[in-house]
């Protein structure tokens, strides 16, 4: 045993050649493991992106509701102004027609 010189490269290649099926399965397992890692990372990124988009949607929805409230409030004023002008004949006085009331 001590007197024999082994060519390590040749021994390894011979062993790999004899166990091609096992080596192929090992390579397949490694490739699939890296694929699972990459897909898990991609899924986490997409989930994070989805959460950000849902938050933006909620903010936009709140802003939309506030704008609807503001619009309905402004419509009330314009409706009151329309009724005052057309049905009641009211108008905004000019500066010459304004009178100052002083409380004593």
TrEMBL record:
A single BP term in Gene Ontology: FtsZ-dependent cytokinesis
GO CC, alphabetical: cell division site; plasma membrane
InterPro entries in the cross-refs: Cell_div_FtsL
Keyword Repeat: no
Function summary: Essential cell division protein. May link together the upstream cell division proteins, which are predominantly cytoplasmic, with the downstream cell division proteins, which are predominantly periplasmic.
Subunit structure, as described in the record: Part of a complex composed of FtsB, FtsL and FtsQ.
HAMAP family named in the record: FtsL (MF_00910)
Protein name, as recorded: Cell division protein FtsL
Natural source organism: Moritella yayanosii
């Amino acid at each position: 045993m001590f007197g024999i010189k082994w060519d390590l490269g040749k021994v390894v290649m011979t062993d790999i050649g004899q166990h091609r099926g096992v080596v192929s399965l090992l390579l397949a397992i490694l490739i699939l493991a890296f694929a699972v890692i990459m897909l898990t990372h991609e899924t986490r990124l997409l989930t994070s992106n989805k959460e950000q988009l849902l938050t933006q949607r909620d903010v936009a929805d709140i802003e939309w509701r506030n704008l609807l409230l503001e619009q309905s409030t402004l419509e009330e004023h314009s409706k009151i102004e329309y009724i005052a002008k057309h049905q009641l004949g009211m108008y905004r006085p000019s500066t010459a027609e304004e009178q100052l009331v002083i409380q004593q």
